[in-house]
Amino acid sequence: MANGALRANGHPHPGHGVNGQTSAIGITTHGSNWYWAVTAVMAVSTFLFIGLSFSKPRSHRIFHYITAAITMVAAIAYFTMASDLGQTPIPVEFPRGNRFVDVNVGNSNREIFYVRYIDWTITTPLLLMDLLLTAGLPWPTILYTILLNEIMVVSGLVGALVQSSYKWGYFAFGCAAFLWVAYTVTYSGRRYASVLGQDISKTYTMCGVWTIFLWFLYPIAWGLCEGGNVISPDSEGIFYGILDLLAKPVFGALLLWGHRNIEPSRLGLRIRDYDEHPGHVNEKNVAHGHGEHAGLNDGVHSNDGTTTTTTTPGVGSV
User: Fold this and answer.
1) Fewer Cβ atoms within 10 Å of its own Cβ: the N or the C terminal residue of the chain?
2) Torsion of CA 74, 79, 82, 87, to 10 degrees
3) Sorting pLDDT into bands at 50, 70 and 90, what band is 305?
4) CA–CA gap between residue 297 and residue 77 (Å, rounded)
């Protein structure tokens, strides 16, 4: 069946109309078809990650849930882009006269998919949560890294919506924030992961290096697409789509494979199931020095028959 998404959403040739404006530089049916294909991969990955979670106890599913949430949000974003929605026309800084410009429209507007940045605003913090929780980083470091990540994404969005050369100022802000995120992942995270065991360190290093390598390519894509108007929106979709497929479903598969024999308690995560008493301590884990509920009670009996309880923090506390 032919792909009629562009026409169905009010974008007949010539141009892609939004809010009374049109884009001479927009995706074609070929680009829409690609976006539909990525949507399908993201959706299938979500169901696979959720299905795999049922092989784990409920208290051990945190990484399955986070990873499935990443691909679920991405599937919705790609559905939107495949339908040529979630975009707005923005005049380009460099018209260039490229062959992908629709000369029948009479302007130099390029469609910018702001929904892509909404996706990243939600999914990149979840990706960092997957990584930094694996390393057992303290919560203040995790939250600060996520804040810098949000600065990175929002700076990219604002820059994409700016016509003038000031867009490159926002590009610089975003790159500076990214470098700090990369430092935390590649240096601080590896140091924390290295003391938690060889299997944890290996999983973190594999997924961390994979993620930061791919994230270094996103600014290049931005410069060629929203920034410099060098490649067509269809090529933009392929560039970003391949990066997102590698950074989300493939990353998720690598991460969950690495976590197959890692208990959350080893990472300092205390997760209680609904049928477990809050005061219960897993004796097996305590015997190995990392209880799922950090804190061991030492009862000291006094002469009047009362019991004084002192708490010794467990290795797994956060």
Assistant:
1) N
2) -80
3) very low
4) 49
Q: Is 111 helix (H, G, I), strand (E, B) or coil?
A: strand
Other C-beta atoms lying within 10 Å of the C-beta of residue 10: 11
For 314, which DSSP code? Answer: P
**Vertex 217 angle, CA 214 and 220, to 5°:** 170
* pLDDT computed for residue 9 by the predictor: 64
Per-residue pLDDT tens digits for 226-262: 999 999 999 999 999 999 999 999 999 999 999 998 9
Q: How confident is the model at residue 141 (pLDDT cuts 50, 70, 90)?
A: very high
* Gap between the Cα atoms of 20 and 111, Å rounded: 13
Answer whether 38's CB lies under 8 Å from 244's CB. Answer: yes
Closest alpha carbon to 276 in 57, 56, 53: 57
Distance CA 71, CA 73 (A): 5
| pTM greater than 0.70 | yes
